[in-house]
Amino acid sequence: MAPQSRLLPPLLQVLRRCRASRSHFSTAPSLVSPPSKAVVYDEHGLPEQVLRLVDVPPAEIGDRDVCVRMMAAPINPSDINRIEGVYPVRPPLPAAVGGYEGVGQVHALGPAVTARLSPGDWVIPSPPSFGTWQTYITKHENVWHKVRSDVPMEYAATITVNPLTALRMLQDFVKLNPGDAIVQNGATSIVGQCVIQLAKVHGIHTINIIRDRPGSEEAKNKLKQLGADEVFTETQLDMKNVKSLLGALPEPALGFNCVGGNAASLILKLLKQGGTMVTYGGMSKRPVTVPTSYFIFKDLSLRGFWLQKWLNSDKTEDCRRMIDYLLGLVHEGKLKYEMESISFGEFSLALEKALGKHGSQPKQVIKF
């Protein structure tokens, strides 16, 4: 068989001329992906101990498969939790490839692919799919969704997990009208930044809570530049008449909690009568404690949101429409958030930063 580097171009030319007729490929050599490199783990544990870089041999590209050259993929907290074995949904072991979202470029198409894809198109796994921390991925065409290529690749790589969470929470729990308000903790997170900007697009006011820490004034200014109406530290809200701080803003009907503990209690204090708090994370690892009076006299509701469950409820087309909408906002300059790009060759450093070993860091995005 000819070397792979000389084999792929002729086959791709044949695919472009003759994709409609499978008989043209009956005697041709199998179409295969290039060899790949991947970050894998064989057991659950501390990521810095169980992750390893391996060479992956070429994979056969089936009739309806699409081979994608990955360009970028983030390290999300949920990726870390999967490796540690504490996330509810995990890839099978051994040799599980890390990563759950990312963006790549179509490298080759199987002869019976019906999707409107061409080599060079940008695609993301949608809904997200295990195994994005590798240089080439070959999967069925149904996995891939073509996205616009006129946005920074870091945004295409990270558009699903965090921005989509923000969008769904704004739409799924309380009917909000222009002029209404929401309150959230964890406002400096990517979800928090997205909530601020998406709310602004729809005329919704945001009241934002951040931790007391060095640089909090700078963080406040950054969030206000994104469109935040008010930003408070937890200490500022540790007072009895907390609603006096809202000024002319309406009492929020909806709150988002990703921290737990005291930060969740502050949201409950600010919510209006009959309000709803949605919990989608627990960064402090402390429980949500609710005074009985909040249930009896304020009639508050507590809900939870998990994007994975929403995606598993046959929402593929809805998901893809919203991805296109969100990337459109990115293109228009109406949606942005902090990230740091780092090369695949420096994965260990990116992992250390994602684990907080270098202090608070932006989202780490691996560029292949």
From TrEMBL:
GO terms for biological process: fatty acid biosynthetic process; fatty acid metabolic process. It catalyses: a 2,3-saturated acyl-[ACP] + NADP(+) = a (2E)-enoyl-[ACP] + NADPH + H(+). Keywords: Fatty acid biosynthesis, Fatty acid metabolism, Lipid biosynthesis, Lipid metabolism, Mitochondrion, NADP, Oxidoreductase, Transit peptide. Coiled coil: none annotated. It is found in: Mitochondrion. The keyword NADP applies. It holds the Pfam family ADH_zinc_N. GO terms for cellular component: mitochondrion. Residues 45-366 form the Enoyl reductase (ER) domain. CDD domains: ETR. GO terms for molecular function: enoyl-[acyl-carrier-protein] reductase (NADPH) activity. Gene3D superfamilies: Medium-chain alcohol dehydrogenases, catalytic domain (3.90.180.10), NAD(P)-binding Rossmann-like Domain (3.40.50.720). Its EC number is 1.3.1.104. PANTHER family: ENOYL-[ACYL-CARRIER-PROTEIN] REDUCTASE, MITOCHONDRIAL (PTHR43981:SF2). Belongs to the zinc-containing alcohol dehydrogenase family. Quinone oxidoreductase subfamily. Homodimer. This is Enoyl-[acyl-carrier-protein] reductase, mitochondrial. It comes from Zea mays.
